[in-house]
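Example 5.3 — CRISPR-associated exonuclease Cas4
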Amino acid sequence: MEDTDPLPLSALQHYLFCPRQCALIHVERQWAENRLTAEGRVLHERVDLGGKSTPRGVRTVRSMPLRCHRLGIGGVADVVELRGPGRQPYPVEYKRGKPKSHRADEVQLCAQALCLEEMFGATIPEGALFYGESRRRTAVAFDPDLRALTERVAEAARAMISSGVTPPPDHAPRKCGQCSLADLCQPKRLSRPPAVADWLLRQLQAE
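Solution (predicted structure tokens):
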């Protein structure tokens, strides 16, 4: 598919974490920073500078622009290592914190791999997530299930953003407590209709 305005790769991560967060960022263009996002920004400062290096015989390209016309997605990879004599791409995404229980980070990384496969005409079986808290890489295999999930999320995120409609909040204390947009989103208050709204709904139902 051709698209002059590709869906940002980060939107897939945002959508799988929380569709409402995705809409606030990519539809309403809202943003706020907290300690967690500030730590993530500092972690990315080095790779966001761009440039190339060749440690241990591996060519490392930082801040590589990516695009997949088939899925209409695009963005920038933190790091792409070009390995071996064939220069096989190996994407590495930097994240603060530690590995998550959900697959949002894996989907974002897999989306990078799908872009690289189209760009290089190669099959990429694996990439890695580097977490700032553990200071270690977690290898991610791009198996059929993850690839299918990534394509479904890309389609769903694109449909939601194209609709221009922000989903209602779904208050989840642990997840919402980590979100920098919590004050803008107001999930706890808005997930429970005010008393006036309840009264109006009862009146309409009675009629």
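Remark. The first strand starts at residue 7 and ends at 8.
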